[in-house]
Recover the amino acids of this structure.
């Protein structure tokens, strides 16, 4: 295997020769059409593939380079300052392709992972349903046997960037006679299959990155099953693991650093400078509170990551960071609104301006305690797994799913 | 607090715990009579033999630490003693030592005083607060007026910890050349100490009047313009406070968690109610964050990092506020018994309330953070 240093030098030279330099980092315009970003991401991925720097940690037989995390880290470090296909990192590579690698058939691994690495295909997840997000194992999208295939019916939602994807990992119920975790199957479904209707969800800040999908008699072949029939929870658990790992920055399949261009929130530091209230001690105290909390979040994240690494804390302790992250993000939103004062009401002329962006960000305040698993679930995990408190009563436990009450 | 301790550090902690429990149990503290000395000199001297006043003092001045990282060892000790709500001058003696060590070699020589403090033969306290004033250590109202052969001190200090038992007072004073600190014997002519009511049952404080107190030029610690030395003392004080409050929170939280398992209502333990479980989850998260920020502050002060002042203020701001939220919720989860004299919770709450108030409130430290960030 090529040494990391040799790989790094080769990557450095290739990047300089072939990849476009990143433009400035001014915030993107408030627009809900990011089609061009996705076209660009695929182009950039094809360039990486052509240059032999795509899929660094994926095995060679599936189109990757079969190298180590250290090689990927070296490449990521070298890639800073260049345009990279960041929208493909999550969920395509870090969650979906990683799960297929763990659980997929040879054909699925070769075809789907290979196409993603070549920049030809984008993957997404069809997990949450309109009936509820926290109780994932209670999904009611159904898949019924039909000859040598399956027919899917149901609805999914909160699918990140599904509108830009070609394939989705869809969790459906295949057996209603057994308890909920034991009757699920994961399917690889083309997002453009006949019977799939997709809508983009418009969020209160105007962003439309999430989708909802309706499945009406969508037929997929047997070869669409990922893992075993009725063992879909095992696959979903791998997905959730890869999701948490990538959120925490631990995935080896993420290439390049930074996030796709989204609407960034305005921090208390930015608003205090923009609105010129730096002399007011009431405002200065709020800024200090923000600075303290931001530091505490970083310190706690470091400490918990180290403790989980050494075994000093149970892996469930990552929920501590998840909970504190929500608290910190929401405190930041609250403080920004208080610092902006009367400015949040009307913005700057006909534009929202910085204070208006604070206000728009505030409307999305609760997303920090909802996305990536609600804080209510994190609190259950902490109290039950870290503190050993009794589990919540669950009338659906060990009961055939068809007998579980689904509504009043 | 620290995730992995060396055998020496564990021994350091265990020996401190042993000496504390031998003499001052929580019941003993609860039953202390008004006016009774909170600790005795012999006990403190034994503690000094175990290194309680040595961690941040270099070996050539009689000190030394078990790990070679004195500030972190001091934080470990503050945790161990804080868990038992120890009486004794751990904070004042170490804060004074921080100032004396910091200025060693730059002004009059105080080697003898340092050695006596390290040995536990002498006790010192920082006279920095003044009546009716909030935290403003570099703007003292007490004056040091140059006079023949030295200075004359006039003014009043209060909230001086262990003023009644201190042999030496490190006094902040305004001089024509800026703020300076003087090491003054408590027995000096013109010094009057009177006790002050203390919220914390195991601590005592006093008001100290300086009426034309004459000191020689040798009494000065370092030189005038002592802002940086005072900053170092503050950082040491904050690390000790936050470390002992972390330990207090560990104890109170463990006690409350146990209570939730043992106490049954409506035929089920409190720990089975989701409304209460979620509050425990929040408290557990804040507790981890308190430890994380305290550990980061101790490491930064140990390393004398450029951001040591900032991280000390981050810790004090966060731990100071969160500790009270956690402790009051522990009281709430206990029910009425949590506000009875016999219960230990109020002893912890007293310590945490006092600690958040002194050496800069969380609000003071937030303003400092804005200053440090050049906002």
């Amino acid at each position: 295997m090529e040494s990391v240093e040799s790989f790094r030098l080769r990557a450095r030279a290739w990047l300089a020769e072939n990849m476009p330099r990143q433009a400035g980092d001014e915030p993107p315009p408030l627009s809900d059409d990011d089609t061009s970003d996705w076209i660009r991401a695929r182009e950039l991925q094809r360039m990486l593939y052509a240059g032999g720097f795509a899929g660094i940690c994926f095995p060679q037989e599936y189109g990757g380079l079969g190298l180590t995390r250290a090689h990927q880290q070296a490449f990521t470090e070298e890639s800073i300052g260049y345009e990279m296909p960041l929208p493909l990192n999550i969920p395509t590579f870090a969650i979906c392709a990683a799960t297929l690698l763990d659980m997929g058939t040879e054909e699925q691994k070769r075809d789907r992972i290979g196409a993603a690495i070549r920049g030809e295909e984008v993957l997404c997840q069809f997990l949450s349903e309109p009936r509820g997000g926290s109780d994932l194992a209670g999904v009611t999208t159904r898949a019924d046997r039909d000859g040598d295939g399956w027919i899917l019916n149901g609805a999914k939602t909160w699918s990140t960037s599904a509108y830009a994807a070609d394939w989705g990992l869809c969790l459906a119920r295949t057996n209603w006679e057994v308890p909920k975790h034991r009757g699920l199957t994961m399917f690889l479904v083309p997002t453009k299959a006949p019977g799939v209707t997709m809508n983009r969800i418009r969020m209160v800040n105007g962003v439309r990155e999430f989708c909802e999908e309706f499945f009406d008699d969508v037929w997929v072949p047997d070869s669409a099953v990922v893992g075993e029939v009725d063992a879909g929870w095992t696959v979903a658990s791998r997905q959730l693991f890869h999701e948490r790992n990538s959120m925490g920055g631990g995935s080896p399949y993420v290439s390049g650093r930074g996030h796709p261009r989204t609407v960034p929130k305005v921090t208390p530091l930015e608003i205090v400078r923009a609105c010129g209230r730096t002399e007011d001690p009431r405002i200065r105290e709020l800024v200090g509170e923000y600075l303290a909390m931001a530091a505490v979040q970083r310190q706690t994240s470091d400490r918990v990551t180290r403790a989980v690494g050494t075994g000093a804390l149970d892996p469930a302790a990552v929920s501590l960071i998840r909970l504190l992250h929500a608290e910190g993000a929401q405190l930041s939103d609250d403080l920004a609104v208080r610092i902006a004062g009367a400015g949040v009401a009307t913005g700057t002329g006909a534009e929202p301006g910085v204070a208006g962006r604070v206000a728009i960000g505030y409307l999305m305040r609760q997303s920090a305690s909802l996305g990536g698993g609600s804080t209510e679930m994190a609190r259950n995990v902490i109290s039950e797994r870290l503190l050993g408190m009794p589990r919540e009563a669950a009338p659906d436990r060990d009961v055939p799913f068809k007998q579980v009450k689904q509504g009043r | 607090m620290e995730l992995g301790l060396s055998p020496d550090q564990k021994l350091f902690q265990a020996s401190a715990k042993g000496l504390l429990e031998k003499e001052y149990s929580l019941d003993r503290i609860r039953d202390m009579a008004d006016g009774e000395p909170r600790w005795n000199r012999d006990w403190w001297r034994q503690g000094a033999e175990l290194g309680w006043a040595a961690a941040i003092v270099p070996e050539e001045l009689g000190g030394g630490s078990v790990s070679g990282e004195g500030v972190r060892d001091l934080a470990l000790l503050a945790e161990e003693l804080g868990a038992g709500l120890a009486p004794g001058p751990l904070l004042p003696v170490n804060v004074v030592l921080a100032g004396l060590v910091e200025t060693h070699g730059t002004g009059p020589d105080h080697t003898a005083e340092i050695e006596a403090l390290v040995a536990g033969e002498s006790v010192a306290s920082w006279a920095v607060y003044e009546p009716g004033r909030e935290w403003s250590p570099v703007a003292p109202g007490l004056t040091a007026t140059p006079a023949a052969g030295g200075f004359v001190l006039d003014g009043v200090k209060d909230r001086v910890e262990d003023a009644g038992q201190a042999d030496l007072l490190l006094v902040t004073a305004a001089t024509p050349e800026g703020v300076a600190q003087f090491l003054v014997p408590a027995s000096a002519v013109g010094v009057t100490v009177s006790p002050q009511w203390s919220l914390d049952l195991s601590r005592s404080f006093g008001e100290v009047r300086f009426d034309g107190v004459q000191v020689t030029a040798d009494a000065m610690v370092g030189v005038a313009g002592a802002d940086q030395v005072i900053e170092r003392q503050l950082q040491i004080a904050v690390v000790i406070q936050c470390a002992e409050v972390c330990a207090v929170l560990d104890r109170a939280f463990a006690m409350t968690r146990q209570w939730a398992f043992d106490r049954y209502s409506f035929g089920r333990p409190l720990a089975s109610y989701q409304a209460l479980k979620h509050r425990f989850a929040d408290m557990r998260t804040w507790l981890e964050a308190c430890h994380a920020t305290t550990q980061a502050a101790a490491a930064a002060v140990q390393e004398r990092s450029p951001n040591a002042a900032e991280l000390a203020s981050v810790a004090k701001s966060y731990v100071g506020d969160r500790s009270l939220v956690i402790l009051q919720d522990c009281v709430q989860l206990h029910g009425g018994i949590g506000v009875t004299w016999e219960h230990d919770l109020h002893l912890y709450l007293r310590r945490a309330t006092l600690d958040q108030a002194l050496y800069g409130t969380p609000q003071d430290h937030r303003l400092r953070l804005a200053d440090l960030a050049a906002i």
The longest strand of chain A covers residues 149-160. Chain A touches chain B at residues 269, 272-273, 278, 281, 284-289, 291-293, 295-297, 299-300, 302-304, 306-307, 310, 312, 317, 320, 323-324, 327, 376, 378-384, 386-387, 389-390, 392 (CB under 8 Å). Chain A has eleven helices and eight strands.
